[in-house]
Design a protein that fits this description.
HIT family, subunit A; alpha+beta; 348 residues; homodimer; three-stranded mixed beta sheet
């Protein structure tokens, strides 16, 4: 690439300038010093009283795990996974009072829903990039458990499973954890993807994402694959070193994935996030699962995971226009990540 | 407010959770220490050779100012305002080669356009919050000059005028400056506002923004007004302490504003940004002008300025869903800003 390019997302009305004139290399983003907040970790074993009671714990049982919960004041101590309500929820469960609609407001509704934390390991630093695969299989299973329970509620229209890693990416606690938020509406970005992929399907009788996958698997933005998953840097990457992980089998949501897919996803998380970690010295990042909220979208939607390294700042232009500037061409990002992820895989 | 609220923007399909359960006060955002990058400032007088030649300078002349430019190797030294190309442009002027469309890409176009810097003052620290009003009048006039010249070009579909203040808000140089980027398309957020306000106008024969202004002027989110402008915290503020500045007279763009409006905008910038500065100890922020790109939108669009303090981080939930969580109810923000801005006005 010799000139800046303006790219539009596969489906979204989202444009990105791939700005080669100020192109950056991985080393430009590597921070030498990392600060760490001191203090007692409320997610570490022994501190269970510092958080609300768990609605789900995995505890060792007969060489496998048993699902249970904290109740009647009792708190499990020997857990492998611990799911708890967020102490400061953005969305809160429906109460006894009826929802109110306030006059004199363009659009008002109570933020009804759930906001939970999945503590991924009793070991403070067992982040996916360095975790043991069996532990990551527990993590993925916990995602599925929470998704299944929460999406069954009538007032839940979407379940967002996301992870913030590092202070700069919004993680106020450094203990390995994922968050789950349910919304009483379909979020904008998911809604736009659903609409565009539905239109594509009506016109072409094909899943747009399946076609994207076929194209990207064979191209310069390919990063890695295993039996069930493909990782690639998306064409119109918004963030430097952004990558997406797609299941090879067309499925619209995480429910009903096979045991093989769960294990393969655990491996994908480990090697892809491990590659990102080794390439950029454990950078802050966010990830979010994108899933179809309804069965009616099962033909045209294809669930996936999007990973956004947090290496730059969105400033006045991005925030006031919704247009993004990315200093790393996704082809460069993929080349660097490909090598780093392959090394991680060899280390398994 | 006793429970979290879910609010939708006046016009955009943009939702925000006003999260009172983790509500923050102004003092929670005040940073005690500010770092400052050392080194030579390329925007300071005497260092004009460190930047490209200016396409516009204001120089003192007969007690007023004269417009000129650098040419034939000559660089003006005694400027009051200096407009230069950005050394690392996101968008670049149209070249001799024809635009190419690459096959095998969903949507590709060269990032054709302009990316400029308006150096707001020869004095390094003369940011709007502390500037002299006559200097701020020059700044506003420079916005108008660049807007007029750039928007006349056939390949320019939108002119974004925005400001990044502070390292955390993306300002890599601390000398007072604004940036201008032109895009060969109408940006998403502007396009959505245009569409929604057009629909409102067709239905109600009224400018949606004029109605918003009437309502907000009389309500709990009002902050400040002078003869020509009103500042308020928007109903569905995305950012803590976000505020918008609207002209009282319906106009779709900044062109054709009167001398009185220019002076009143200079005052609005000074007292509103001054209030923000004093309330939160000179926080990082971004601002962006929203204007209609075409005359055909003059009935229904209403130009304005949006100011986004940079006090929190958008994390995995925001980035993967397009839904936002704001820890400061705009009513609280307005109450605090109202007092702070009034103090600034008294100090004029």
């Amino acid at each position: 690439m010799s000139a800046n390019e303006l790219r539009k997302d596969y489906l979204l009305n989202r444009r990105v300038v791939i700005a080669v004139e100020r192109r950056r290399r991985p080393t430009d983003f590597v921070k030498k010093v990392r600060e760490e907040k001191a203090g007692v970790c409320p997610f570490c074993p022994g501190n269970e009283h510092m958080t609300p009671a768990a609605m789900l714990v995995y505890v060792p049982f007969n060489g496998g795990i048993r699902r249970d919960k904290d109740q009647n004041g009792f708190r499990h101590k020997n857990w492998l996974i611990r799911c708890i309500p967020n102490l400061y929820p953005a969305f809160t469960p429906i109460g006894k009072k009826k929802q109110v609609r306030v006059k004199d407001s363009p659009d008002f509704v109570k933020a009804v829903g759930h906001h939970e934390v999945i503590v991924e390991s009793p070991r403070h630093d067992e982040h996916p990039s360095v975790a043991q695969i069996p532990q990551l299989v527990h993590v993925v299973n916990a995602y599925l458990d929470r998704l299944e329970e929460l999406s069954a509620k009538a007032y839940v229209k979407y379940v967002s499973i996301f992870r913030n890693h590092g202070l700069e990416a919004g993680a106020s606690l450094s203990h390995a954890h994922t968050q789950v938020i349910t919304t009483p509406f379909v979020p904008r970005i998911i809604g736009e993807e659903l609409g565009a992929s539905r239109r594509y399907w009506m016109k072409n009788d094909q899943c747009a994402f399946c076609e994207i996958l076929t194209r990207e698997k064979a191209g310069p933005r390919f990063i890695w694959e295993n039996g069930s998953f493909v990782a690639f840097a998306p064409w119109a990457s918004v963030h430097p070193f952004e990558f997406w992980v797609f299941p090879k089998t067309h499925k619209s949501t995480l429910e009903n994935v096979s045991r093989k897919e769960i294990e393969d996803l655990a491996v994908a998380l480990k090697v892809c996030l491990g590659g990102l970690r080794s390439l950029l010295n454990d950078p802050p990042y966010n990830f979010g699962f994108h899933i179809a909220p309804n069965k009616k979208d099962s033909n045209h939607y294809h669930w996936h995971l999007e990973v956004y390294p947090k290496l730059t700042v969105w400033a006045g232009f991005e925030k006031s226009t919704g247009v993004f500037i990315n200093l790393v061409p996704p082809e460069d990002a993929a080349e660097n990540l490909r090598e780093a992820v392959q090394k991680e895989e060899k280390g398994l």
